[in-house]
Amino acid sequence: MKKYLMTLAAVLCCAMTTTVFTACGSDDDDKSEPASNKPVAAVMDVTLSVSDDMVDKANLSVEYYDANGIVQTETLTKKDWTKSVQAKLPATFGIRLMVKAKEGVDYASLEKFTESYTYSYSVYPVNASGTVLGGGKSGSSHSSLDIPGSKVAEWIADKSGGILKILYAVDANGQVTSGNWQ
Asked: Is the model's pTM score more than 0.90?
């Protein structure tokens, strides 16, 4: 019986010691996240490819937000376009593919016009050392449409607000949310 009571006392002593040490936690609970987990910037990487018809028979441009949150425009003269932008938080990221009629092209005389594009993107927060943190967004898609030459001018007019629109906001905490081009 004496041995049983000594074993019980030892177990109770261990249990109480564990409880006391567990209750004595760190006082750092109210401090901010370690720098390695704190988002300070965000990045948007985009890859876009368009058909020969779109490059050769239309005026294409890509609008995008630069590192300062200002919309920039680049004329698309090749089939492939890539961009990577990093901005301090909070930040806005986006691209919009624009199309206009190309002077000197008689669309009505074309048998067809191929509107085809493929894109992929990712938007993600990073810490001070550039390490990617969770909570980003990404996507990709492909669209292909053969338009009769007689309908190309109408199609271009219909796409005056953009063929492709992607817009994201990243808040000061690195949370990524989608938005809409105005």
From this structure: no
